[in-house]
């Protein structure tokens, strides 16, 4: 099914997705006129190629992401260090659920690709099932592990024929995205599927 994704602040860079691939990138008016049967998804802010998070191992293997049902006991923020490792030692099955919740947090921050050498089956499976791309780790990492690392690592420009993989942020421009960070994400698309939408 053809879908046009257009964001308010970047109408000249709308995306026509045909399943898992990008059929065209261009002004919304041109894409809509050429494909009147396409479904249209309108978003606030800017449509971008999405982010590469270079902290795959740190966020998906070394951190524990509590289940919401554990919030009263463990809180809602990821646990790191010895506290996380103690949980994993006590129950190895926690790794898979934690990695899946970690991936969901990444998607909620506009992450479409992850970097770093993932070694655990749980993390590899979570990344694969979500459809995240795996990219190269930058030679210099941007500060401590974060879902919104500074500086943000944006992927190359979207192009026809490429994968329908991108993110939308509720900011007026890229400078504001850099200033406010990835928590401004309103939608993430992987393989043409809307995998995250802020409610």
Account of the 3D structure:
- Helix 5 (94-107) runs parallel beside helix 6.
- The protein has seven helices and eleven strands.
- The chain has helices spanning 28-34, 56-60, 71-74, 81-90, 94-107, 121-130, 174-180, and strands at residues 2-7, 14-18, 21-26, 39-43, 46-48, 51-53, 111-115, 133-135, 166-169, 185-190, 193-197.
- It has two domains: 2-50 and 156-197, Roll (Urease, subunit C, domain 1), CATH 2.30.40; 52-135, no CATH class.
- The radius of gyration is 18 Å and the shape is elongated.
- With 199 residues, it is an alpha/beta fold.
- 29% of the residues lie in helices and 26% in strands.
CA(first)-CA(last) distance = 24 Å
Tally of discrete structural domains: 2
The number of helices is 7
Number of separate strands: 11
Largest β sheet strand count, sense and barrel closure: 4 strands, mixed
CATH class placement of the largest domain: Mainly Beta
Shape: elongated
CATH architecture of the largest domain: Roll
Q: What's the arrangement of strands in the largest beta sheet?
A: 3-2-1-4
Order of helices and strands: EEEHEEEHHHHEHEEHEE
Radius of gyration: 18 Å
In the CATH hierarchy, what is the superfamily of the largest domain?
Answer: Urease, subunit C, domain 1
Helicity range: 25-40%
How large is the share of residues in beta strands? 25-35%
At the fold tier of CATH, the topology name of the largest domain is Urease, subunit C, domain 1
Average predicted local confidence, pLDDT:
95
Uncertain stretches of 5 or more adjacent residues: none
Structural class: alpha/beta
């Amino acid at each position: 099914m053809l879908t046009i994704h257009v964001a308010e602040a970047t109408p000249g860079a709308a995306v026509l997705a045909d399943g898992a691939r990008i059929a065209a990138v261009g002004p919304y008016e041109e894409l809509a006129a050429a494909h009147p049967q396409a479904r249209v998804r309108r978003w606030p802010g800017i449509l971008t190629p999405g982010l590469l998070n270079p902290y795959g191992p740190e966020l998906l293997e070394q951190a524990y992401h509590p289940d919401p049902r554990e919030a009263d006991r463990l809180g809602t923020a990821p646990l790191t260090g010895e506290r996380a490792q103690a949980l994993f030692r006590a129950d190895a099955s926690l790794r898979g659920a934690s990695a899946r919740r970690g991936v969901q947090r990444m998607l909620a921050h506009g992450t479409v690709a992850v970097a770093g050498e993932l070694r655990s089956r749980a993390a590899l499976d979570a990344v694969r099932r979500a459809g995240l791309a795996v990219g190269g780790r930058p030679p210099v990492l941007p500060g401590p592990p974060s879902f919104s690392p500074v500086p943000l690592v944006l992927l190359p420009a979207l192009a026809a024929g490429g994968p329908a993989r991108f993110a939308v942020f509720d900011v007026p421009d890229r400078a504001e995205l850099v200033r406010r960070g990835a928590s401004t994400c309103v939608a993430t698309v992987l393989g043409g599927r809307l995998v995250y939408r802020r409610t």
